[in-house]
Every structure is written in C-alpha cells, then in structure tokens.
Amino acid sequence: xxxxxxxxxxxxxxxxxxxxxxxxxxxxxxxxxxxxxxxxxxxxxxxxxxxxxxxxxxxxxxxxxxxxxxxxxxxxxxxxxxxxxxxxxxxxxxxxxxxxxxxxxxxxxxxxxxxxxxxxxxxxxxxxxxxxxxxxxxxxxxxxxxxxxxxxxxxxxxxxxxxxxx
Length: 166
Fold this sequence. Notes:
2 domains
C-alpha cells in the first residue's frame, strides 16, 4: 500500500460517487485493489466494508469493519470505521452497539470527524427512544458553527440532557 494505491482507491471512489460506475462494478474494482494487499490487511477490510456500506449492504459491511478494527486499523481510517460501523449497526437494528462504540469516540482525540461522531450517535440514540439526548449532541455539534448564539445553543443542549435526568 503506497501513495499510488491510495490514489487509485480515491479514483475508484470518485468515479462511483460521480455516478460513472455502477455498484457491482465499483465493488469489483475495490476488491481488485484490496487483492493487491496482504490477506486480512485492515485497510483492505475497511475499504471492502465501505464499498458494501455505500452500496446498501450494511449487513455485509459490519463484519468487515469489526475485523478491520480487531486487526489494528489505525489513524484516520480507524475513526472513520467507528462512525461507519455504528451507522451500519444502526441500519441492521443494533443501535445499542453503535451507541456504545460512539460514546467511547466522544473522548477520542478531536479531529474533523467529531461532528460526524455526534450526528451518528444522535441517530443511534433516537432509534433507542433517547431523542432528547440525541438532539443535545446535535446542538452541541452545531453550536460552534453558528455566527451567533453559540453559548445559548450550548447551554440549551446541556439543559436538554439535564431535564432528562431530573
């Protein structure tokens, strides 16, 4: 796996997202790229999981994401996997596992995926009937992006959760 391989993967994704390649062919391209890696390589498992996930097969993505994490996937892809795995778990009726996974991610080192973690966690919480908690997370994520009312929205988010615990 090198920069050339990474560019080829990125090119496959761009072609798929641009509608230039149909789903089955896209998964075949990703499979061929993954075959260039050593068997069981965590990045290959991640990419295959993403390909299934993005083509409507969350059920097939879940075990690939889980194995990628078990095999030591790290860096930016590790956090992406956590978000995507939680989303897929939610899609297959296992939102409680998604909540557990993403709750741990809330304390991970901050990066550009922080808002995605909160958004996906909010969806998992909503599926479990914990909408107020989910709304609080979304407001907390949104507040820093507002041109005004940042402090108010952050306070409202905290109040939503505090009201639930009363």
